[in-house]
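Task card 7
Instruction: Convert sequence to structure tokens.
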Amino acid sequence: MIALLSPAKTLDFERTLPPLEPSIPHFAEEAQGLARSASKLTQKRLSELMHISPRLAKLNADRFRDFADLPERPALFAFAGDVYTGFGVDTLDEAGVAFAQDHVRMLSGLYGLLRPLDAIRPYRLEMGTRWAPRHKSLTDWWGDRIAQHLLAQLAEEGSGVVLNLASLEYFAAVKGRLPGVRVIEVEFREPGPNGPRFVSFNAKRARGMMARWMCEHHVSDIEAMRGFDSDGYSFDAEESDADRWRFSRT
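Output:
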């Protein structure tokens, strides 16, 4: 089983890292090429494309301009958004991190597909961006490459199963391009005045917690993932079917 996560806009390149050996992203050259192309965009254009403030547009323009000289760190220790707060890599033991390296992948607009220890540089380039060199969007630019690499990873891992904990925006990069692969979709619900409801912030954290639980317990059998019980969540059999699972919190 391979669990898919989305990356995070929020990055942390300051915290102390444990002793570990970073790996090299499979699409490192593609990331360099995209960064060079993006460096030609004006701050105003970046602001429009990414729907960000002028301050953030300048930050990311500078990042693309200086990309080749920026510091690197393993992706799982660089991303710091809600999903990664839920994952809590800083408290995961060495064996759990090693398990993650084999069983967790992060989809990325810039890097395509990342292993947890793949070294990345600071960036912001969302998969849904309506820009790419000689293409109308990043998903068009990547085409089948991410899916083909994921298929190769699944063949090596041996299960033929994807646990999809990524957002719709990011999973679109491989959706419909994984023939023969069983994809388990997961949704999380919270108590509400009119019954179970979806809360984006909590769902993002729960995706990270589920990936963490998988790594912490070294779970490689997809059916065993029904036992996920972090933070009060439990599998809701009545609201689930074979490949779409709901976890609810009471």
